[in-house]
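Whiteboard transcription, Tuesday session. T.W. wrote the C-alpha cells on the left side:
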C-alpha cells in the first residue's frame, strides 16, 4: 500500500504530533484522511461533518492540487505523494 506524507495545521495535529509530516498508508486520499483523523485526537470532529463528508472549511491538496479539481477523496495516491490539509480562506 502506498505511503503518503500528511501535513496539517496545528489545530488538527495537536501539540503532541510536532510539525513533521505524518507518514500514513492508504490507497486513496479518503482512506489516508480517515487514518489521519482516527489517529489524531480531535481531528475527526474538526475535519468531518456529522454526515461523514469533509468540512468545506478545509482544502485538501494532493501534491499541490486541490482534490476537488481531481477525483475528490477517491483520488488514488502513490508512494511519496504529499497531502496537505489547509484551512480554507474566506472573507469579504
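and on the right, the sequence the group agreed on:
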Amino acid at each position: 500500500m502506498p505511503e503518503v506524507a500528511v501535513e496539517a495545521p496545528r489545530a488538527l495535529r495537536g501539540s503532541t504530533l510536532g510539525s513533521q509530516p505524518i507518514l500514513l498508508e492508504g490507497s486513496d486520499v479518503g482512506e489516508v484522511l480517515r487514518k489521519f483523523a482516527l489517529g489524531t485526537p480531535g481531528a475527526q470532529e474538526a475535519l468531518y461533518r456529522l454526515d461523514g463528508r469533509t468540512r468545506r472549511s478545509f482544502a485538501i491538496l494532493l501534491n499541490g492540487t486541490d482534490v476537488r479539481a481531481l477525483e475528490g477523496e477517491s483520488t488514488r495516491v502513490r508512494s511519496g505523494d504529499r497531502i496537505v490539509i489547509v484551512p480554507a480562506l474566506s472573507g469579504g
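Someone added at the bottom: The chain has a mean pLDDT of 88.
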